């Protein structure tokens, strides 16, 4: 498949590292070798400087503002110069091209448009490649399915959970022309990837980003390799560190992603701790891109649940559930403390036509017990029993507070 900017995306590693050194020195006055000794930046820094205290250009030079949802505290506000928006569009264009998009390709964008960075970034990236963009945004899910069929979309862009919600409304999958999907904005497992691919008969690809760094497009998978997302290293220098000690970790080891922005103007960040857990590899990729690849995000440093003294990651529950063929890929976790002990309830839908029953419930509870090291109550729901999300899925309801 064509590469959007091959002169950069296929740079030999020595030349790429030389470019990174130059840009790091120019942006921050820092040498690459000294980077691991420098302090980290964290989200609290941005919240403490709310709204524009960390800008590095006059506010008048900023042509757009985005913000996080603020569901875990005050919103994180990020601003963009015109140069920053051009850079962002290029990064998302690389992701669209890596999925096989090109002039005339119909791209259906069902990420939300607005303060959330998802929809607009992918939208402008697709237009930059020359695609025909359907700016559907989120919501009105039955209409999303109709538009996919009527307009002949070939690439679908949305959160993984919303892709499955749309699939519920597709009556005749064979009439769709989808061949690839670019999914991100929430952690998802390889089992969920398989469920989406089965529902739509497409190649499901991961895209990663966060508002503080640029938005979606920090990294993206290619259709040829499908084994890690290429980090756009000419713009973002990436590290993996031990979440507890902050010490660097080698390729292949899971740790916290840390990014330094090399070309951003309005809000450059040095060694920003993302809270996302992943690993890196410098192995060659069949697509020819030389950028380092990051694994799918396997969790967050702040989403680990402690239930009756046991550390539980929602992603481990998802893997266990989706390995059972009778279950649909729609679930929710509810944690309560009715007395002195925590109670974990796992609500999971049955696949269409599956009768369920006590034997299946016992099987699911046994599998979860082995995977998690603690018991969980399982509620088998009829198809449609779990509330669908039109954006990021709310998988965990922690009612202990």
Topology diagram in text:
Elements: H1 6-9, H2 13-28, H3 43-48, E1 62-67, E2 77-81, H4 82-98, E3 106-109, H5 118-129, E4 132-134, H6 141-151, E5 155-158, H7 160-167, E6 180-183, H8 190-200, E7 203-210, E8 215-220, E9 229-231, E10 236-241, E11 255-261, E12 272-278, E13 280-281, E14 293-294, E15 299-300, E16 305-307, E17 310-312, H9 314-322, E18 327-336, E19 343-350, H10 358-372, E20 377-381, E21 396-398
Parallel strand pairs: 3-4, 3-5, 5-6, 6-7, 18-21, 19-20
Antiparallel strand pairs: 1-2, 7-8, 8-9, 9-14, 10-11, 11-12, 12-15, 13-14, 16-17, 18-19
Helix pairs in contact: 4-5, 7-8, 9-10
How many beta-strand elements? Answer: 21
Instruction: Report how far the terminal alpha carbons are from each other.
Output: 50 Å
The rough form would be described as globular
Largest sheet properties: 9 strands, mixed
**Oligomeric state of the chains in view:** single chain
Task: Output the number of helix runs.
Answer: 10
Q: Helicity range of the residues?
A: 25-40%
Classify the secondary structure makeup into a structural class: alpha/beta
Please state the average pLDDT score: 94
- Spans of 5+ residues with little confidence (pLDDT < 50)? none
Radius of gyration: 21 Å
Spatial order of strands in the largest sheet: 4-3-5-6-7-8-9-14-13
| Percentage beta strand | 25-35%
